[in-house]
Amino acid sequence: MQQTSEPESNTSSLNGLPPEIVDAICCHLSFDGHALLRLGETSRSWRSVVSDAGLWKRLNAVRFGDHDVTPPPARPAAALPGWAFFPGMDSQGSDCARPEDAAGELSPTSLAARANQLAACAFNTNGWIKSRLTPIGRWVRFSYTPGEGLYVRQEVVLRGLGLPPRPPLPARAEPQATPPDIPGWLFYPLMESPGHDIRHPATGEDNFMSSCSSLEEVASVAAAWPGCVAFTTAGCLKSNVEPQVHWRYKGGGATSWAGLYMREGVVRERRMRPPPPQGTLCDPLLRYFQRGHRRLRAARDVDVTWLNGTYLARRPDPEPPQQAQQPVASAPVAAAEPGGHGAGGGDGGGGGGDRGGDTDDDDDSDSDFEYVDELGMYGPPGAVWLQRPEPPLRLVEAIPAAAAAGAAAAGMAGAAADAAGAQQVVALRSVCWLELNGRFEGVGPGRYRVSWWLRVAPDCDVADMEPLHLQVLLDAARPALGGSAAAAAVADLRPGALAALDVGRAELMAHAGRGWYEQPGGEFEVPRGAACDLVARLWNHSGDWKTGMMFREVALALLDAA
Question: Quick check: 244 and 286 in contact, CB under 8 A?
């Protein structure tokens, strides 16, 4: 994967102060981007610092490391002697070899050689080799990405499937970095807005791959579908999108041929940030705030295994957190205090109850403020805009009723319903493999507690066979502020469990039928000078079917600053 270069920061413009002093100030603010934005309102000199994209790239590198890399471009299928290619398709079952058997050799040439050894009739580009095929009418589409699909022996195409010979493929195909431009839509590369999926009317699936053979066909359906504001390269249609600060980066995929198409008029009406220039990953200021969340909604920000509407599903919160009274649209907006989850950040510090003065900017449905300016922050969809010519950095507060009215006026019925409705949670319907993973990036020095907000039904059987397991895992650590002490602190950190506890049936059922409660998930410490990427995991992999729980969020609370 090719890593992007980091431009130099123009920090020498701060009233003539030496660059090393400015750099030191910015370095110590790497964990508090909100404070840095507020400094931009104090003087033109600070504004010039805050306006510098290179500065935000540098802050991302200090706090989060160099994780955002561009995956390789998609490589369209090329001619493979003796094999025919079916783009995007797969025949399910009858596998005689798995991807793990390939020892990392997943190129079509390597897979074809392995299929020859096994006398197999087909293989897909994910590495599954087939001993037989289902009738072609039962095949499924799994991708629109160029080069992904199913290779079938030429003789099987004719004698097994009864199809005419497939057209020949080029001997060499040029890589494709991004999907095609589609009139009326703006493409955001490697971005995803979780949730708000429109279900297929015939299959109930959360994508339209079963009826659309190409991305252009998906675009045609999206353009004609009432209330559709976006669609993805995975064939998902969206009735609404989250504010951009809550979008998720898809850079961990196999190729760069992935992202989100937004309806051009919606981008304009909601004053969203435009797509980044071609060849760049993302607006660095926006990316900083996308990665810095300390409260993760289960339905939006957490990776939930089997969240497909059948085993686990998104649904409106039956008992939403109390919301502070919203001020009138014309009221002046006060500056927010520095964010974070301290001891006063809500009930138990976890951030899931009535959070009062919490200003961490993680949630657009509460009374928190959202930054808006030409640097890259914005209000949520349909927000009421407060403007002034000087200084340009402003804060705007979401007015839910105005959001719903604005969406309805734009003819977006689905978006209006989303704006007016309660926030969503994850409901456990019935599943064997229960696992939720919430990722906290760039966690600075201090002592923390992780908490899950759970709701237990009287018929809950999650912990009948084995306890519910909670873990906090260290995924990566890096020196945040430089110096030998920081390097030494990081040298002692190893990936693995920082905290773990089990919740048995008796403890879990003590909360049955009593609404949402805060379940501690463990305490841990990040040493001075370090920045850590953490995973909060909730899981139960016992073989019995589980039901009767809901999950609202996982929160990271700062107990003691280093």
Answer: yes
> Looking at residue 441, what DSSP letter applies?
E
Confirm whether pTM is higher than 0.85. Answer: no
Please compute Rg for the chain using Cα positions. Answer: 25
The span from the CA of 210 to the CA of 225, in Å, is: 16
- Can you tell me the distance from the alpha carbon of 389 to that of 382, in angstroms, rounded to the nearest whole number? 21
Contact residues for 388 (Cβ-Cβ < 8 A; gap 6+) = 394
Return the closest-CA partner of residue 435 out of 355, 549, 559: 549
**Chain Cα centroid distance, residue 293:** 11
Residues lower than pLDDT 70 in the chain: 1-18, 21-22, 25-26, 66-69, 252-253, 279-281, 322-422, 481-486, 562
Residue 135 lies in a domain: yes
Give residue 431's domain range.
Answer: 425-561
Cβ pair 470, 502 in contact under 8 A: yes
Within this chain, do residues 441 and 546 fall inside the same structural domain, yes or no?
A: yes
Query: Which tokens belong to 475?
Result: 């995924």
The neighbour count for residue 459, using CB atoms within 10 Å, is 9
| Residue that is written with structure tokens 């009062």 in the block | 356
Residue 96 counted as domain residue: yes
The secondary structure of 358-408 as a DSSP string is: ------TTSS-EEEESTTS--PSTTPPP---SSS--EEEE--HHHHHHHHH
Alpha carbons within 13 angstroms on the beta-carbon side of residue 328 total 2
Predicted local confidence at residue 281, as pLDDT:
67
- Name beta bridge partners: 122: 130, 152
Q: H or E element: which one contains 188?
A: strand 185-189
Beta carbons within 8 Å of 5's beta carbon, 6+ residues apart = none
Mean pLDDT score of the chain? 79
Q: 475: which strand partners?
A: none
User: Does residue 310 sit in helix, strand or coil?
Assistant: coil
Q: For 246-273, what is each residue's pLDDT tens digit?
A: 999 887 667 889 999 999 999 999 999 8
126 is written with which tokens?
């994910």
Sequence-distant (6+) residues with CB within 8 A of 342 are 349, 557, 558
Residue 139 maps to a domain:
yes
Q: Would you state the pLDDT for residue 22?
A: 64
Query: How far is C-alpha 176 from the geometric centre of its chain's CA atoms?
Result: 23
* 3-state secondary structure (DSSP) of residue 218: helix
Which 8-state DSSP code applies to residue 2?
B
Residue 165 falls within a domain, yes or no? Answer: no
pLDDT over 90, % of the chain: 51
Number of domains in the chain: 4
Going by C-beta distance under 8 Å and a sequence separation of 6 or more, which residues neighbour residue 42?
none
Question: Judging by beta carbons within 10 Å of its beta carbon (0-12, 13-18, 19+), is residue 367 exposed, middle or buried?
Answer: middle
Q: Are residues 91 and 36 in the same domain?
A: no
With a CB cutoff of 8 Å and minimum separation 6, the contacts of 119 are none
Count of CB atoms within 10 A of residue 364's CB? 20
